[in-house]
Amino acid sequence: MSERDGRATAAGRSLSLLARTNLILAVSALAIAAIAVAALNQFVIKPIAEQSADDEAALLVLSAQTWVELPPDARPYFELELAQSHDLIISAETQTLARADLSRPWLALLQARLSDRLAMPVALLEDDVLIWAQVPMGGLELQIGFSPARRDIQPLNVGIVIVVVGALIVFLASLGIVQRITRPLVMAAERVEEFRGGENFEPLPEQGPRELVSLARNFNTMAREISALLSNRTTLLAGISHDLRTPLTRMRLALALLPDNVDPGLVARFERNLEVMDGLIGDALRFARGTQETPQNLELLPFVRDVLSGFEQTIPLTTVDADDLRLALAPGALQRVLVNVISNALQHAEGVRVHVVGRRIEISDAGPGIPVEARDAVFEPFYRLDRSRNVHTGGSGLGLAIVRQLCQAQGWRIRIEESTEGGAKFVLDL
User: Are the C-beta atoms of residues 365 and 345 closer than 8 Å to each other?
Assistant: First the structure.
């Protein structure tokens, strides 16, 4: 995998700015909510609950004392007043009831406050409807009933409300703020990824916050300068390569007009050197044309078959999910990429075959393969592998370098893997 592909893979695995910001804000919101719940419980809910339990205990004890001190004929009126005004039911008839569940904090506080006021243990009982406090008073065991939901505290529910509502507010706020920031950045990242040095790039809109305007302006300036530089380089390369054809033709004509007594071996060496020069010039011209080529709507599979038919050796072709697939591609650049890779494989290996899987073209062989540490270097100009390259096979040494340059210019990706036959597999992602 090339360094660029590695960076792209790492970028794909990393979190976006929006996700990172929301994650940080969410963790911060949860921490703030937890601290708020703890502080609220410690300094607000707990004191209020203790005071409420103490007031309720005082009311129960006072009610029991008043009921005991009243004449028997006045007690029914007092009981009615308690029921209407305080939702309390007082009874001198002892009921056999189960112990109340003290898992609710307020009931536990109430029992503790009742026990403190009466200086003796007080039991809380319950039936299907009410909670009953068993209050010993004046030699009697009075039972005073009240609703189980009476003044109950729910710190867990309070905490859930604070956390959920707080997190929702933070998320919505961060979503709005971060999107305003990330939308231009995402657009900039997409334009940078799509930029291949062409002159027809779409500039970034120079709007928004001052920092983003500066970023967009600098990118647009850099893109224009790079486009102009690459255009001038390509034009210069094409011009020089084209102009070299004239002296090359003159040299060939001069060789043809040499006297018969000239050493044939010397003439043959000159002709071979001229062929190498002609190959270099042809490669330069094809590269210059390929980088400036406009994509066309092509049917991929027939195009690949047509390229393979140009080789003298029959090359097996297999396909998966590639029937009737049409793509916007530069035909000259794609043809040069396929021809260079296949020619390189035919020159240095055996068992060459082509496999088209959707938008991916795989060219594999059964040769000696390419070491992992050299899979990026083979795309450098004039780089050779001693064990897999034969010095007698010739070649300009620019074939794979042109392949990578054309792929970068067209937005394609090419990498080298190990084939199932043990050789090399060139994978071209369109």
Answer: yes
Q: How far apart are CA 430 and CA 413, in angstroms?
A: 7
Max distance between CA atoms of the chain, in angstroms, equals 154
pLDDT for the residue numbered 362: 92
Place of tokens 């070299």: 244
Residue 224 has pLDDT above 80, yes or no: yes
Instruction: Say whether pTM exceeds 0.70.
Output: no
**Contacts of range 24-31, beta carbons closer than 8 Å, 24 or more positions apart:** 25/170, 25/171, 25/174, 26/167, 26/170, 26/171, 28/170, 29/166, 29/167, 29/170, 29/171, 30/163, 30/167
402-405, long-range: CB < 8 A, 24+ apart: 402/283, 402/286, 402/287, 402/290, 402/336, 402/340, 403/336, 403/337, 403/340, 403/341, 403/379, 404/379, 405/287, 405/291
One-letter amino acid of 117: R
Let me know if residue 188 belongs to a domain. no
59 and 152 belong to one structural domain = yes
Read off the pLDDT of residues 294-340 as tens digits, 9 standing for 90 and up. Answer: 788 989 899 999 999 888 888 999 988 888 888 888 888 898 899 98
**287 plus 320 within the same structural domain:** no
Task: Tally the domains of the chain.
Answer: 3
Least Cα distance to 59 among 110, 14, 95 occurs for 110
Is there a domain that residue 210 lies in? yes
Report residue 120 as tokens: 């003796």
Q: What is the CATH number of the domain that holds 224?
A: 1.10.287.130
In one-letter notation, the amino acid at residue 71 is P
Is residue 145 within 8 A of residue 130, CB to CB? The reply is yes
Phi-psi region of 366 (alpha: psi -120 to 50; beta: other; left: phi over 0): alpha
- Which amino acid does the sequence have at 335? Q
Rounded Cα gap, residues 107 and 112, in angstroms: 9
